[in-house]
Amino acid sequence: MDKRQALLPICTGAWGRCHIQGIAVDLRKGYIYYSFTTKLIKATLDGKVVGTLDGLAGHLGCIAFNEKDGCVYGSLEYKNDIIGRDILNVIGCERTFDDAFYVVRFDVDKITAPDMSADSGDIMTAVCLYEVERDYKWSGADCDGQPLNHKYGCSGIDGITFGPLPGQGYDDGIYLYVAYGVYDDVKRKDNDYQIILCYDMVDWEKRSLPLSQNNMHRSGFEKPLHKFFVYTGNTEWGVQNLEYDRQTNALFMAVYEGHKKDYPNYTLFCVDMSAQPGVKELNGTGEKAETLALAKKGLYDKKTGIYGWHFPLGSTGLFSFGNGEWLICRHYRTDEGQCGEIGHYKWDEKTPFVKI
């Protein structure tokens, strides 16, 4: 039997008060991984839990499996805004952390039992992303001189995936992509882009260190290889799930619906990775930056020139097999806690996904 057929559907089970953030799959070894904000769950493809890593005091968001090293990577942020404080309240943690933004690598072969500690020291290594920290802590003014905090509305990071550089193929080499979270603010003019940072994995080993929440290191990347802007209109909390798809050679971005009335406020966007990036002036800032174009797929809004879909799922989990088949998570809750149901879908440009 094809391992994909054994997958579906999968119920993650109930995992407390924090909702599911993302999914990743190792098809070769037969494991699926779930991020539930403060914990990482490892399960077999029929849903049997193998082990859990618990005790994260930050926000573990979207996750991605790296075929090159067999590890799971995730966005992990520690911050003192409404999200950070709420997480600490939920898990009953009285500690405070300096604002910091990491990409963490989990050596998932070592996750073999329930309730393993995130502070064990031998499962997690991480790099710190200083570009995110600078934009998050920024204070300045918009193009009209009005004072603002958080450049481009940066609220941190969430979406993460691996893929080629724009204009190249998957076999040319893969790079790490990390997407910003963006605060929902209908009054700002500088927050209408999704921002995606690109990092070269060649530099990972010399910059990463074991991550212990008892002694948070600051080793990492001063600058990304590229900082791309994608014009979508403001969305609530930015890119929730980011997933590269080989079949379409595109980055899919699942978001929460935005609230600016001048935009179509789609909840799924597709970035054309076959095209070279451009350099354009950003709306609301006057700055010039590298931009990526949305693929001309789905619904088209003539007023803004934006393509996308009003697709209700994906913000809590997207996974592409690269052959037109996808796993997509539906989040729900029970009296026992937050859950996810992971279903099998087929790519269809108009819909854009049809459940199998």
Give your account of this protein's structure.
Helix content is 7%, strand content 45%. With 356 residues, it is mainly beta. The chain has helices at 3-6, 82-91, 130-137, 204-207; strands at residues 10-11, 22-26, 31-35, 39-44, 49-54, 59-66, 71-78, 100-106, 116-117, 124-129, 139-141, 147-149, 154-163, 175-182, 193-199, 209-210, 220-221, 226-231, 236-245, 250-256, 268-272, 278-281, 288-291, 299-301, 306-308, 318-320, 325-334, 337-347, 353-355. The chain has one domain. The strands form seven sheets. Strands 6, 7, 8, 10, 16 and 17 form a six-stranded mixed β-sheet that branches. Strands 13-14-15-18-23-22 form a six-stranded mixed β-sheet, covered by helices on one side. It is globular, with a radius of gyration of 19 Å.
Q: Provide the domain count.
A: 1
Radius of gyration, whole Å: 19 Å
Helical content class: under 10%
**Strand segment count:** 29
